[in-house]
From TrEMBL:
Transmembrane segments: 595-616
Domain Cadherin residues, every copy: 68-148, 149-256, 257-369, 370-469, 469-579
The entry's keywords: Calcium, Cell adhesion, Cell membrane, Glycoprotein, Membrane, Metal-binding, Repeat, Signal, Transmembrane, Transmembrane helix
Example of a GO MF term: beta-catenin binding
Cited Pfam families: CADH_Y-type_LIR, Cadherin
Gene Ontology cellular-component annotations: adherens junction; catenin complex
Signal peptide as annotated in the record: 1-22
GO biological process: adherens junction organization; calcium-dependent cell-cell adhesion via plasma membrane cell adhesion molecules; cell migration; cell morphogenesis; cell-cell adhesion mediated by cadherin; cell-cell junction assembly; homophilic cell adhesion via plasma membrane adhesion molecules
Function: Cadherins are calcium-dependent cell adhesion proteins.
Name of this protein: Cadherin-19 isoform X1
Subcellular location: Cell membrane
Gene name of this polypeptide: CDH19
Topological category with respect to the lipid bilayer: Single-pass type I membrane protein
Amino acid sequence: MNCCLLLPFMLGIPLLLPCLIATENSKTEEVKHPAGSHLRVRRGWMWNQFFVPEEMNKTRHHIGQLRSDLDNGNNSFQYKLLGAGAGSIFVIDERTGDIYAVQKLDREERSLYTLRAQVIDTTTGRAMEPESEFVIRVSDINDNEPKFLDEPYEAIVPEMSPEGTFVIQVTASDADDPSSGNNAHLLYSLRQGQPYFSIEPTTGVIRISSKMDRELQDEYWVIIQAKDMIGLPGALSGTTSVLIKLSDVNDNKPIFKDSLYRLTVSESASVGMSIGKIMAYDNDIEENAEMDYSIEDDSKTFDVITNNETQEGIIILKKKVDFEHQNHYRIRAKVKNRRVDEQLRKYHTEASTTVIKIQVEDVEEPPVFLLPYYIFEIFEGSPYGSFVGTVSATDPDQRKSPIRYSITRSKVFSIDDNGTVFTTNSLDREISAWYNLSVTATEKYSIEQSSAVPVYVQVLDINDHAPEFSEYYETYVCENAVSGQVIQTISAVDRDESIEDHHFYFNVSVVENNSSFTIIDNQDNTAVILTNRTGFSLQEEPVFYISILIADNGIPSLTSTNTLTIHVCACDDTGSTQTCSNKDLMLSMGFRTEVIIAILICIMIICGFIFLNLGLKQRRKQTLFPEKGEDFRENIFRYDDEGGGEEDTEAFDIVELQGGTVMRERKTRRATRVEIRSLYRQSLQVGPDSAVFRKFILEKLEEANTDPCAPPFDSLQTYAFEGTGSLAGSLSSLGSAVFDQDENYDYLNELGPRFKRLACMFGSAMQSNN
């Protein structure tokens, strides 16, 4: 069995191949075609791979022919095509075995199709040969231009970068077959961007070819072209744009806008106040434009600080200025960048400077004292008008106005127009040792300009107070005291101030003719009193008076005479006093009487308070039911109050119910006789719907809501309706005296069997009376 396969040439010219004959059991042989096609013979089928150019515009393109060696041309064989694309992309002539492509093929979508061929005998419907595979390959043509897939491109490079600095790499892609000629071999070129940039043709790397200054131009657009077929004629191309931005470097120093600034400052300006601004500009941006200002001559009066937000230099006052002392200043300021890289210092060799002229403005100032405060001294006891000291103030302004002085709120000192302070009252150091004064200086030509200075006056001490006992002594001596017994230790005080420590001397007055007691000076500002004999008599000499002289160490020394009173007492064996002089006894008795009287008064007050409480409670019980004696029998009140538990400490007073008691008007029996029958029935029907009862409930509700003494929690008040009673009035004989004696009781016969007894009693009684 043999077959022939007709293959088309690449250029579309059919080539008839000679038939190859092989037996069914022969091995596969490979035969090379002169044009490069490969033919293989296997089991009677001759199969191969077919090449079809892509993008063929024919609607029915002939690819090749399949023919069995068993086909004798009698049209009894039928050829079938199986596999992917069979019937839709590729069709076969069932009689001749010709294969056609009925659709345009695109290698970029699919470059290889694997199909199967089969031959069937139409007379028997059986396959004459087993299926055999063959391949149809779509050959590439240059139909795709290069494309840049990573667009858009953007790069940032520092300004002033040297030549050859890498910027960015662009890459294009070609969908054509890279193994088919040069269809996918690309070359890159620069269409726009010279002379600052260049590109490597094969890699697409963009580099800097010339230095650029961001301050002149901060971004560039570069257009790159990619061509396939290594740029040969007929090649396809694609382009892309690259945005290249220049980042800033600190290659510019700050420069002052003006070479001279004129500022003014008032001499009244406080330290730290801003008096003006200076400004430098820097072509760099962001942190490269941050700058610092400074004063070149290291001024002690002015300083400059930098505003980090606005990059301005703020001139501030470092020390107060005085127009009269210096009315103008000239300083020089400089500016430099805060951070400069070492490789860029060549751009910052010399800092920019400017001159600042500051004019001091004169203002009217208050008087100025020569000293911030004054301290004067004067001895106590100095006469009126004594000189204390002198203060002095001057007008700092040019006109030098005269000054007037005054002392604020002082009755002891005064001051004249020359600033001399003198006394206007006596001074006593023991009353006040220091005086704090405030002296005010006022300009005569401008009274609103004034200033004050503190003046401290110290009153110096003179020895004008003699020493005296430090306390009142109550001294006692026993009748059985022996000679030389210490009965009292005394000390002294002096209100004067001593330069040295106080030292007191004690002695008995020379005029004192009393040898019963003596004194010994301890030389430590104390002295002891001793008995000078044995035995004393309470009845004969109950009291002794001793004059003691106390001298101080002042200059001149002052001496005072102090009397020490000694009472004689009767003592027991242990030395405890039992009975002393009459005076002491009276004092103790007087003290006891006062204590007893005070205790009695307290007892009376307590008893009066108790009686008052009992009286109030009794009165409250008597007035709890004021109508009980008269109308209580006719009114029944039921009051159930739900209290607040243990916290409810105030019980509800039932008197609240008494104000609303409904008192029925007493009717005469004659008036009720006409309507007694109808009213009797109505009285039995009156209930909670009665207007009287509703009015009563509303009154009680209003009283509860407006009661200021009500507890601060909810309460429940219950009122039970007991009826209105008999409309005929009371039948009691207690009030019969108020009625006429000729009252007719015949109407009782009309009230029914229940009143028959009363009708007989009163009816017969009236008849007997008549």
